[in-house]
Amino acid sequence: QVEQVKLLDRFSTSNKSLTGTLYLTATHLLFIDSSQRETWILHHHIAAVEKLPLTTSGCPLVIQCKNFRIVHFVVPRERDCHDIYNSLLQLSRTAKYEELYAFSYNPKQNESEQVKGWQLIDLAEEYKRMGVPNAYWQLSDANRDYKICETYPRELYVPRTASKPIIVGSSKFRSKGRFPVLSYYHKNKEAAICRCSQPLSGFSARCLEDEHMLQAISKANPSNRYMYVMDTRPKLNAMANRAAGKGYENEDNYSNIRFQFVGIENIHVMRSSLQKLLEVSGTRGLSVNDFLSGLENSGWLRHVKAVLDAAVFLAKAIAVESASVLVHCSDGWDRTSQVCSLGALLLDSYYRTIKGFMVLIEKDWISFGHKFSDRCCQLDGDPKEISPVFTQFLESVWNLTEQFPQAFEYNEAFLLQIHEHVHSCQFGNFLGNCQKEREELKLKEKTYSLWPFLLAEQKKYQNPLYNPDFSPELTLLEPNTVSFNFKFWRNMYHQFDRSMHPRQSMFNLIMNTSQQNKQLEEDIKELEAKIKQRNGQLDVVLVKEQEQTAHPAPLALKTPPCFQKEQPPMPVNDAVRTIEGSNTADNRYSELVSEFSKAEPAVVSLEYGVARMTC
Amino acid sequence: MEFAELIKTPRADNVALHRPFHPAVEGTLCLTGHHLIFSSRRQDNAEELWLLHSNIDSIEKRFVGSLGTIVIKCKDLRIIQLDIPGMEECLNIASSIEALSTLDSVTLMYPFFYRPMFEVLEDGWSSFLLEQEFELLSSVTNEWRLSCVNKEFSVCPSYPPVVIVPKCIDDEALRKVALFRHGGRFPVLTYYHKKNGMAMMRSSQPLTGTNGRRCKEDEKLVNATLRSGRRGFVIDTRPLNVAQQARAKGGGFEQEVHYPQWRRIHKYIERFNILQESFIKLVEACNDQSHNMDRWLSKLEASNWLTHIKELLTAACLAAQCIDREGASVLVHGSEGTDSTLQVTSLAQIILDPRCRTIRGFEALVVREWLQAGHPFQQRCAQSAYSNSKQKWEAPVFLLFLECVWQIHRQFPCSFEFNEQFLIMLFEHTYASQFGTFLGNNENERAKLKLPQKTMSLWSWVNRPEELSRFQNPLYEANSLVIWPSVAPQSLQLWEGVFLRWNRPSKFLDEAEEERIHIIKYNKELQAKVNALRRQLAEMETDEEVQEE
């Protein structure tokens, strides 16, 4: 505990600050300012801690979080600062899974609730929903004991004609043994999205079993003979891989395939791209042109567009040409996961529902071995393995929700909350790199699943504009991927920088009004029933009178719906469940009045200072 | 002149109309004196397109065999294409359109011919008089007076006949001050901040010249707005060096020695010709769908449009801040005081004054701060972003103001009584309109053209209940606070409603907007119903009690 610590506003130059007390707990860093507002930061969310040179007011400490929050403290005494710094370094670096928050987190659920929670998302059920197994596709037990591929799930769907020797042979010809398996089956078009890793073709190697495997996939589609093979890498990267004995499919060796590169960059490019983006967006007193050129130089939006373009290509191949598509990149767990899941999202409206989106993440990301642990740096490990691949996926989905405001059951808060928990290590879902590892960690016994918690508070994540009839089942969503449609996702990268957000949130207003409408509808029913009852038996009801009049008037009557009683613009986590963020973005708008009566607006005063100097 | 002389081919059949994101339509094209009319004859798909010639910014023609194609680029940024069979017809039509869309004489413009089909409930020409404004002011302060010194437009040709000035300054002094200010634009009151009694004034630059001329009356006039012992701020919309250079041409700025109670702040806002260039570049960038991400972003950057937005918003916030936070009076001017000055004073009022965020209040603001204040609309809006001709006086000064309002609107979506459509409608009418409101460059010219007698006012139409309902913001909830927008680049957005309006299908976005409105309206209905039911129930209860007794 350190007192008299100052929390500086990230973008203010006027040195506006809050003074308060900093506490370190086993799991969180907590700052309570003089007006008793709390800022909680989960240790697992800390990406970097930096001690800046001593200033007259104390020792500055900058903490960067994985959810893009950046806090800037000034600690009066250098020794305290050093202690905090060292403790945070230790606390934020975890060496073993068992030390992660998820293993100590106790949401007061009993064992059966815990088990039920884990059963909420059932992938076998999901494949059944898609329509497999069927005449062409079957469940294979080849990987039942993770013998063929450690990073795949136990249960895999393959064409019926793909026999065990073909599977084994094909897996030996594929990087990390990740042979072609079913990811999504489109029952109307009878076409499939399959996924795998790159072939170990080198410059000339062939594998008959692998060729048979692909043929089996194209034959499993009765409506179209040819299939697409999408290599999601830039051609140059794929060619370079040939020198290492890997590479891509030679069209001559495989019958009836159409081979296509789509040019999504690798995890290292994405990591540095996001790094650049954050550097730009974190600059104080940023000019418009520096922002735009920084945005351009970071390449981030270009990458997001590339991912979405690839997904559109995939979805059209299936919906328009009824052709099956095999997707791979290098290992088939980053770009492949992005493209397969986004493609399915465009094809199938089920994934645009809250539950469906959970299923999609469980299937294409968790079960197929996207390396969440490495990519999100859950344990202290190789910094070169970190990459915002999943963040990019969420951003692509957000872009779609912007273009199709009525097509999605969930809202932005849902995406942000998932992003929060991919990094929080509070729930077991995203721990580890693959299913085998998760089983070994006994996550289902020792930790809780995130999904039931999200479902329990789904009111917060519902899109008030959602129209279930917007797109009938299995009709393609066709986004426009012209460059100007891609925007900087302010609510993700500046989620915690209040000064940048609209001061009144239209979204929250609509959301609250929509929820209030439901309440009012019920009230009307109730009132009508009462009136009817009274008309029927005028004099008997006296006893119940008290109760009826005591019925609280709905909120609506006292105050019209306006921003004053709005929730914060950003999703605020349930305080009981996730302390992080619970009180920070809070009440921003309800304090509109007090905020205005306070000191000058930060951004303007900056210019003011400049202007004064030129007098 | 007869329009018929200009129309060699008044009608062409089997013309195909192409618009982005619409299937091509075949129909008949007619030219009249003021309109290009396209109507499709097909039963199932009858539609008509009426386009004012004055809305046409430029046309291009080309031929493939005997099929001529005319591409029409409009001032509201829409682009349409007409395929006209027959070379002669096509040439005739093209030359007619060209002639009719570039008529020189104002009195040939459509507003002089337009006969409204609606009943005028309230004459917009007299809806917003400065006298009414002054009456409101008199109820809170008696430090100001109405002056008719400019009755004959002789003191300042670009000012209205009446202005509000400090009470202690007589007309004689005003005449002297007018000689000391560029174009005679002496300092006048533009906004009075009731909360603390601070005033915002605007003027043009003082004519100090190289030898530092001074004018005692000018000093007295501006000092009259200061409380004793308080300072004021002069916001000069030019950079210091430009203001210094202006002295060589007889202009200049308020020097510290002669205005010791004033502190000068130079907050640079680009001059109008730079803005026009920026406008053209931005529209070019938005119209090319083939740009890859890098190219799009670099084009957007190169246009500098959002930079201008940020600078302007910042300057307006600064002025508002001086008044509201520093408790100081403010004088705003640039060189002529007809462009950047008005942008700053009008935006500052949007920030400070809740009344300006209502529909009528905003209309009054446009009338007061733009039309009466002498923004040269006719010069600035003669051409839009597609004009090929060399620009002279054209510039999207008012559009930039509207966009800044839109940016604030985005950040405070519940604080404005009007919606985005209202702003877009104003943008359209400044460039091409059936109403006379935006004709002429100042009140003097409007009086000479007899616009109030000969044309209809835009406000007569807009303020009809049927029209108003289209422009109302369902989320509006009066907010009496000063609203400080964020001017961080991350908070600014491209105004898609104007710049991408014709470049993308907006069906899904429009439907979502309808749904939003529906939710709000439904809420009101439900509340009314709950109240009615509750009342009914309460009545039944009291009836019962009476019976009980």
Automatic annotation (TrEMBL), chain A:
Keywords from the named record: Coiled coil, Hydrolase, Lipid metabolism
Segments forming a coiled coil: 510-537
One GO CC term on file: cytoplasm
Domain (Myotubularin phosphatase): residue spans on this chain: 117-493
UniProt xrefs under Gene3D superfamilies: Pleckstrin-homology domain (PH domain)/Phosphotyrosine-binding domain (PTB) (2.30.29.30)
Protein family according to the UniProt entry: Belongs to the protein-tyrosine phosphatase family. Non-receptor class myotubularin subfamily.
Name used for this protein in its record: MTMR6 protein
Native source organism of the sequence: Oriolus oriolus (Eurasian golden oriole)
UniProtKB/TrEMBL annotation, chain B:
GO molecular function: protein phosphatase binding
Residue ranges the record marks as coiled coil: 509-543
A cellular-component GO term for this protein: ruffle membrane
Any GO BP: negative regulation of autophagy
CDD domains recorded: PH-GRAM_MTMR9 (cd13211), PTP-MTMR9 (cd14536)
Subcellular location: Cell projection, Ruffle membrane; Cytoplasm, Perinuclear region; Endoplasmic reticulum
InterPro entries assigned to the protein according to its UniProt record, in alphabetical order: Myotubularin (IPR030564), Myotubularin-like_Pase_dom (IPR010569), PH-GRAM_MTMR6-9 (IPR048994), PH-like_dom_sf (IPR011993), Prot-tyrosine_phosphatase-like (IPR029021)
Source organism, top-level taxon: Eukaryota
Membrane topology: Peripheral membrane protein
Main location: membrane
Family designation: Belongs to the protein-tyrosine phosphatase family. Non-receptor class myotubularin subfamily.
Protein name: Myotubularin-related protein 9
Organism from which the protein derives: Oriolus oriolus
Gene expressing this chain: Mtmr9_1
